[in-house]
UniProtKB/TrEMBL annotation:
Residues 80-286 form the ABC transmembrane type-1 domain. The keyword ATP-binding does not apply. Its main location: membrane. This is ABC transporter permease subunit. GO terms for biological process: transmembrane transport. Keywords: Cell membrane, Membrane, Transmembrane, Transmembrane helix, Transport. It is a multi-pass membrane protein. InterPro entries: MetI-like, MetI-like_sf. It is found in: Cell membrane. Belongs to the binding-protein-dependent transport system permease family. CysTW subfamily. GO terms for cellular component: plasma membrane. It comes from Algicella marina. SUPFAM superfamilies: MetI-like. The chain crosses the membrane at residues 12-39, 86-107, 114-136, 166-188, 209-231, 267-286.
Length: 297
């Protein structure tokens, strides 16, 4: 018994540096943000150490400075709605593009499969900002897309894509597509293709095989890919800032604005905590789905 306790104590002692680093590097900043969200804003920036719930109130509501009436913060809700809409659209587009891509890779011969996966990972070799500027060169008025359409005679004037929600959507779909393809590939790679043959033997149509055999079996990969795309899309900063021109803000840009020009650190902290709660809920959904598919989880 004493020896077992000694081994447990040695284990805690060996893991103490890692646990301390995790506590300081991860939990520490998060705790600071959480505390700031319950304080009053400073006169110019920072916070005043007076307990207040104004920042959390300001996430969804606003108070008239003259008569004190309370109403919904339309500007904040508009940013929330745009962020959710663009994030969901990005997730859907990457799924539609990623599923056939992952299927194609998973059905290649084993010796060339690694090459196709290698191509998928190439975008990760470059910085996100550089990839975003590359998309800008494609969709700007004098970019490759408009130039090609004009030369083909399909349009007479350039289509204004840059600095719109469509530009942000294109950019995020391009940036986060590999995050959808990789978990889908992992799920399809374990798929037993004899089930498809059995479905055809039972006179199932292609749509029935997709809906009743393939999609239910690869569902963990679909959920993982959707979360891996939706979470960073919701908090995206660089792509909406560059391709949206700063006019069509998302939550990430709104948070940065509060810590910068807005000089309202408590509100920025409260918005950050809201974003964190949404991420935690998404991970909770993934955990529940995974536990249903795997009884050992």
């Amino acid at each position: 018994m004493t020896g077992r306790r000694s081994k447990a104590a040695d284990g805690w002692l060996l893991s103490a540096p890692a646990l301390l680093l995790l506590l300081i590097a991860a939990s520490g900043p998060l705790l600071i943000v959480a505390v700031y969200s319950f304080l009053e804003k400073g006169d110019y920036s920072g916070v005043r150490w007076i307990l207040s719930g104004d920042a959390w109130f300001g996430v969804l509501f606003k108070r008239d400075i003259f008569d004190g009436t309370v109403s919904l913060a339309d500007a904040n809700l508009s940013i929330f709605w745009r962020s959710a809409r663009l994030s969901l659209a990005t997730t859907f587009i990457t799924f539609v593009l990623g599923l056939p891509t992952a299927w194609f890779i998973a059905t290649r011969p084993a010796k060339v499969r690694a090459f196709w996966l290698f191509l998928i990972t190439i975008p990760f070799w470059t910085n996100l900002l550089i990839r975003t500027f590359a998309i800008m060169e494609v969709i700007r008025n004098q970019g490759l897309l408009n130039t090609a359409l004009i030369n083909l005679g399909l349009i007479s004037e350039p289509i204004q894509i840059l600095y719109t929600d469509a530009a942000v959507l294109i950019g995020m779909a391009y940036v986060y597509l590999p995050l959808m393809v990789l978990p889908l590939f992992a799920a399809i790679d374990r798929f037993d293709f004899r089930l498809i043959e059995a479905g055809y033997d039972l006179y199932a149509s292609r749509w029935q095989i997709l809906r009743r055999i393939i999609l239910p079996i690869i569902r963990p990969g679909i959920v993982a890919g959707c979360i891996l795309v939706f979470v960073p899309s919701l908090g995206a900063y660089v792509t909406p800032r560059v391709l949206g021109g700063g006019k069509n803000m998302m939550i990430g840009n709104f948070i940065e604005l509060q810590f910068g020009q807005g000089q309202n650190w408590p509100l920025g902290s409260a918005l950050s905590m809201v974003l964190l709660i949404v991420v935690l809920l998404a991970l909770l959904v993934y955990t529940r789905v995974s536990s249903k598919d795997d009884p050992h989880v």
